[in-house]
Design a protein that fits this description.
Blueprint: H1 4-14, H2 57-60, H3 65-81, E1 88-92, H4 100-112, E2 118-123, H5 131-135, H6 143-147, E3 158-159, E4 165-168, H7 177-181, H8 184-196, E5 200-205, H9 214-219, E6 224-230, H10 236-245, E7 251-257, H11 261-267, H12 269-287
Parallel strand pairs: 1-5, 1-6, 2-4, 2-5, 6-7
Antiparallel strand pairs: 3-4
Amino acid sequence: MSRIEKSLQKALEVRESVKNTIDEKMVITEDRQDFTLPKFEIGESIIKIDTVDKHIICLTDPFSPAAEQYKKLHVRIFRSTVKDFINTIMITSPGVGEGKTITATNLAVSMANEIDHTVLLVDADLKHPSIHKYLGIESKYGLSDYLMGKVKLQDILIKTGVGKLVFLPAGTSAENTTELMSSQRMKRLVYELKHRYKDRYIIFDSPPLLVTADSLSMCSYMDGIVFVIQASKTTQKAALHAVSLIKGHNILGVVFNNVPKDFAKNLYPYYYESEKYYKRAKNNKETE
């Protein structure tokens, strides 16, 4: 993640000026009580650090240099979205295994620890959900069940106890995921979540662009997109193809993930020196 800041800066300089949102005149026909969201109160966290995956560094090692990169990422996003309050953000990638879910989860945790904002993390990868595994949370129902009319929204939102973070799991598996993600019920949900709380960011972990049409269905009602590519895996052809599919949508930035250390050392010598210092300090503390 050592090139996050530089990659995001480059992308912000060339990002599209077109902002795609749902029509402000959309009529909400759902019972508004169905959108009751949990209040943030001091209480015990349901997330236990010893069950959280080590890649969620903002929870497992929040003061590390790696976690600091996610803080820089969320600061960049705040700066680029606060003026128009672009608060529905989709995290995606060209293919599988390129780090989009890890990025979305760490970003949401980092944002949720801010004083001024609350965060809703949505697992919108209905075919292959994994956020609950990374966080060590078990859930029976989620987004797919809501979209099929089986449950109410307030019954599936999980107040994590980590900062001001609420989690909406993907739910039970479904075959017609593209139809669910492009449905009027999904559009109304995003619209309502966007406008109900003015201090809330909604982070959507979406499926890979080149694998399924689900993400393409979501693009039209997202305020912005963060694009994740992996240095050692994503080919130039795949990246260009994926970007061409979302042309015209608001790309907030690019996260260049899993950069080889030897390459990154030349670009970010300060980062690696601070990492060495951090490891020494941590080792000394553990041996005291």
